[in-house]
Design brief:
single chain; 305 residues; alpha/beta; Spore Coat Polysaccharide Biosynthesis Protein SpsA, Chain A; 2 domains; 9-stranded mixed β-sheet; 10 helices; 13 strands; globular; binds uridine 5'-triphosphate
Length: 305
């Protein structure tokens, strides 16, 4: 079997306004909100590196300076910690610095937030002619095998563009894009159609699209042509939809724990779940949660957490 070439580049669209998190996102990028003590975008960059990506392309907009600073060295902070002998904290800093030694991080401006499809299109000249990955930092996915690596492997085997999907109960799926599939090979499903946020009762399947993609060049060609769709934004799913039937698109049911940090309840849940996995924090949280359960009216069931 001939494999498609390895995927070397990953686009991180990070130019959205993050309105669901106002006011915190008024002057701070959503992608820098922490999961416990690490910004969500760092989880994505770590995943990309672990998946063999060589070049990260951040699509940023106004007010996103903190992302650039985060992946840069802070000599002042290093100096401060060195003088005080804080080697454990210096180690944390060096781990972040090291990320930009392992991949080149490029920044490109999306001048107006015209949608996810437009953000990806903004990076088109940097990925010309090759399949590339797209990661949405909001969707944090942790597991033994990086989610993106699973997508890359599926792309190499099939030569197709690949969409990450997960099964959700039908009652929850209306918030997502949904794929229609025809024929499967294990966890890889051939995509024949896609529906953005289906009306309840009309869901064509229980496979929801999450924020990881491998896009082959035909999708970029369509991005050139797509007109603004829902919310007057250029939708990535519209461009993928247009290649169906001409270029293979598959959906991969990935393995790993998925945390939706793009909404306030999802973000709080993700923080709590990851904090409970962290030794040192868990011991502090358990008595607090027990106390909350006992004292908060209407939150007697553990499920409520
Ligand atoms: P979202 O749909 O979550 O939009 O974008 P948003 O602006 O970040 O947040 P809300 O909906 O206002 O709360 C999905 C991803 O696409 C990026 C975002 O930064 C996020 O990572 N994006 C979105 C862009 O880069 N540019 C855009 O014009 C829109």
């Amino acid at each position: 079997m001939t494999l498609a070439p390895a995927v070397r580049k990953a686009i991180f669209p990070a130019a959205g306004l993050g309105t669901r998190f106002l006011p915190v996102t008024k002057a701070q990028p959503k992608e820098m909100l922490p999961l416990v003590d690490k910004p969500t975008i760092q989880y994505g960059v770590e995943e990309a590196i672990a998946s063999g990506i060589e070049q990260v392309i951040m699509v940023t907009g106004g007010g996103k300076r903190a992302i650039v600073d985060h992946f840069d060295r802070s000599l002042e902070l290093e100096h401060y910690l060195e003088e005080r002998g804080k080697s454990d904290l210096l180690h944390i800093l060096s781990e972040v610095d090291d990320l930009s030694n392992q991949v080149d991080i490029l920044y490109i401006q999306q001048k107006e937030p015209l949608g996810l499809g437009h953000a990806v299109w903004t990076a088109r000249r940097l990925v010309e002619g090759e399949a590339c990955a797209v990661l949405l930092a909001d969707d944090v996915i942790l597991g033994e095998e990086p989610c993106l690596k699973q997508l890359i492997d599926a792309h190499r085997k099939t030569g197709a563009s690949v969409i990450a999907v997960r099964r959700f109960p039908r009652s929850e799926i209306a918030r997502y894009g949904v794929v229609v599939t025809n024929g499967s090979n294990g966890r890889i499903h051939e995509v024949t159609d896609m529906v953005e946020k289906p009306e309840p009762g009309t869901e064509p399947s229980d496979l929801a699209i999450l924020g990881r993609y491998i896009l082959a060049p035909p999708v970029f060609e369509e991005l050139d042509r797509v007109e603004p769709g829902s919310g007057k934004e250029i939708q990535l799913t519209d461009a993928i939809h247009r290649v169906l039937g001409q270029h293979p698109v598959v959906a991969l049911e990935f393995e790993g724990d998925y945390y939706d940090t793009g909404t306030v309840p999802g973000y709080l849940r993700a923080n709590l779940m990851l904090a409970m996995k962290r030794e040192g924090l868990r011991e502090e949280l358990i008595p607090l949660l027990q106390e909350l359960l006992e004292t908060s009216p209407g939150s007697r069931s553990r499920r409520a957490l």
